[in-house]
Amino acid sequence: MTPRSPVTAVLWETWRLTRVEAAWKLAGGIAGGLAVLALSAAFAPADDPRRHEGFMDMGAAIAMTILALLHVGSWQSLAKLNGSRAGFPLYLHFWRPVRTAVIVGLPLASVTAMSAVIYLVSALVLRVASGYAFPLLPVAAWIAGVTAVFVAAAWSTRDKTLPVLVTMIAFAFAWTTVVERLTAVELPDGFDWPPRLWPTLFDFPRSDYAWLTLVAVAAVAVTVAGVSRQRRGDAWIDVASAPRDGFWDRLVNVFRVPCPTSSATRAQLWLDLKTNGVPVLTIGVATALVILLVSTVANPIDAAINAHPDVSCPIGECFYVRPWPNILTPFALFAMLCLGGNAFDIRRRQGRAQMSAFEATHAHGTAQLAALKVLARSACVLAAVIAIGVSGWLSVPLLGDAVFIQMWGVPVSSQLAAINGAIAALTGYEQISLVIVAVVGLVTWVAALAVFGALLTRHSRRVILAASSLLLGGVALALLAGAESRGILSTPVFDAIVTAVRWMFLAAMALATVYVCRSGFAERVLTVGYASGAVAMTAAFAAAWLTVLQLAGVRLPGMSAIDAVTILSPALLPLLVSVLAPWSLSRIRHT
Amino acid sequence: MGQIVDVNDLSRSFGGKRALDGVSFRATAGQVYGLVGANGAGKTTLLKHLLGLLRATTGSVRVFGLDPVRDPVGVLSRIGYLSEERELPEWMRVDELMDFTRAFHPTWDASYARELLESFALDPSKKVKELSKGMRAQAGLIAAVAHRPALLILDEPSSGLDAMVRRDILDAIVRTVADDGRMVIFSSHLLDEVERMSDHVTMLHAGRVTLSGALDEVREGYQRTRVRFADHFDQPPVLDAALALEGGGRLWSAVHNEPLDRFQHAVSALGGEVFESRHATLEEIFLARAGRSRQPVEAA
Hints:
The structure holds two protein chains of two kinds.
Chain A: H1 6-43, H2 49-69, H3 76-79, H4 100-130, H5 137-155, H6 161-182, H7 198-201, H8 206-232, H9 234-241, H10 247-252, H11 264-307, H12 323-339, E1 346-349, E2 352-355, H13 357-360, H14 366-399, H15 401-408, H16 412-425, H17 428-458, H18 460-485, H19 491-522, H20 528-551, H21 561-568, H22 573-589
Antiparallel strand pairs in A: 1-2
Helix pairs in contact in A: 1-2, 1-4, 1-18, 2-4, 4-5, 4-8, 5-6, 5-8, 11-12, 11-14, 12-14, 14-17, 14-22, 17-18, 17-20, 17-22, 19-22, 20-22
Chain B: E1 3-14, E2 17-28, E3 32-37, H1 43-51, E4 58-63, H2 72-76, E5 79-82, H3 94-102, H4 110-120, H5 133-145, E6 151-155, H6 163-178, E7 183-188, H7 191-197, E8 200-205, E9 208-214, H8 215-221, E10 223-233, E11 242-256, H9 260-269, E12 272-279, H10 282-294, H11 296-299
Parallel strand pairs in B: 3-7, 3-8, 5-6, 6-7
Antiparallel strand pairs in B: 1-2, 1-4, 8-9, 10-11, 10-12
Helix pairs in contact in B: 3-5, 4-5, 5-6
């Protein structure tokens, strides 16, 4: 295509930059939604129509949530142009003879419209496939409005804290408003927004659309003004005259520990802890403190609100603050696990992803470098997870049982003693096994994310192809499960397919381990010392895994061969990931 | 003197583009090697192979007799490197950068680092992100040279720097080279800089080595000769002995590496005569070699 005007050129560039992400969002939404719907159909109890309907309704609600959540946050394909830093990512346009309104407005409008269209198409496909009335225009309008705010927050300032705050506030506002609308009617014995009521529940008032339009226009105006400052250099001057670090940079410098000069390993560990570990740990500890603080003040605040004469609650007492620690804790744990990614510190800028040449040219063995990076990040993620877990645990008695019964129908608070008792009843070896499984599992997770990032950087097409194949395979299996539950596919045939797939998976895992070990030693990426450590860690994990299986009541002797091998296969994961980590780091260190 | 770098028949492609094409390059200790070439000629690609940042797909690379990909510790512990992008951790303070680099090199010369910091007037408490481009290059250079590496690799060391900083950097390099047995390989598109600093020059064009040798020998081997023809030429005359011709009408200047008597003979055959000859500058040689590849008809 030959763009004939600045407008078409900017639109064309935006399309070129975002089309892959758009395709992923579209495919991910449709595939994820279909998979959830197929799984619901497969596992819904056929003999109980009421439970069957509830199961299917829940599946449809999850599918719709997936479609909406895909659009939370800014567009990563644009954000990575400036290494996900705050500010306008298409800054190369600053030197072009085009008005700021054009270089800002067109990409912003494009991604906003694209988000809405992706949702519309996905919802339409799920609507046709499932027969459920997935809402179209109302949710698409909300997604467009929220996307405009997210993008505006990310582009309009070089400050890193402000976009995070605006995004959180916008998301919280959108979420609570939608939830308030959808749960306005309390339905007994069921969740509050079943698909049969969607046409009514999602029939938002026209004032919503007016507000959304106003918000979108304001977002464009704010972004144009903010980017104009960046383009004029005002933002740069601010930075130059009074250097202000970004949020992450501030966290990097939280603890001023001098760099050890006694050994290269200590110095590298210092670097990794400063850049990768301490920021994660600081976020984790801060979140843990927030959870505890909110838990402490939740009861008095809720009591005060409920006592107010103007407040009427259909269920006796309402829960305004008390649910938040329960919602925040699992989200925070998940966020910490996500922050465990990119342990190899791969940088992205203007479409290029690479390891820092500064680190790549220091005299470190690749295996040692990979181990240091993964262990430093894992240690800090683990500490952050423990902090949040302890905080969540301590908050349970502070919140009281009522909120847990309201949310999940379970009096968690009164079960704490039972949980404590169960743990105390374990032998020391069993307790140590649980700890080993948790710790090695987390290290394996961090290493696996690092490996995925490195391989995606070096062999992006092959990795995307493999991931797509796995995703499609999963969807196909889910559809086959649905077909089997409805009697379209005979059970023996389905079982044979599943068994074959499981054998293939296990064989692939074993072969990959052997291949990477062989290749790693041949290239001298793996050292005997490193491999010994990996084997020792895997052996410890395997022994602990067996103990945990026994604790869970799993009896291997009575199982079929495939079931036994499948249930034991996680024991191989630490070894596979351990050898893959230096191997994949070598691929980006020596391209 | 021992051979430190041995690159043999190295080729490398990125996508469909051939970045290096059968490059062979050898370098011995105690010398300064200048790599010259136009943008995209393959200078940085060659340097990255020496550092092990790129894997040799065809051919071989040996530095200190080792493969830099298979033995990064053995190679990188004896190398100092300044990248073209001056890639340094932005959050680090200058003194932290020095401490961090020092941990990797037992041979770190703290007094030399301090001396360089003072001569560059760098504030050790400043963060890398607060440094100007020139100061960042200076900080990177100190980190690269203060452990007195056996091999110093500088990728476009003076790119984007002002004359004063450029002179400081060149001085530092000269000081490093002054130590016996050390070697510098640097790439540059500033030919006067290469001419001033190098003992050897290697010219790359479109991924190929078009010229390599001791600078003095190279300069002596090429001459710029002025020629007067009896006839008027609108286009450059066909003169096989010349690498490049410029001028017009009856007066032309040729860069050639033929002995002068053979060149004179070729000119006489076209009815011309040589009336002035001198050694060619590196820039003239570079333009002639690069121009020959770009415009074979004209050169022929």
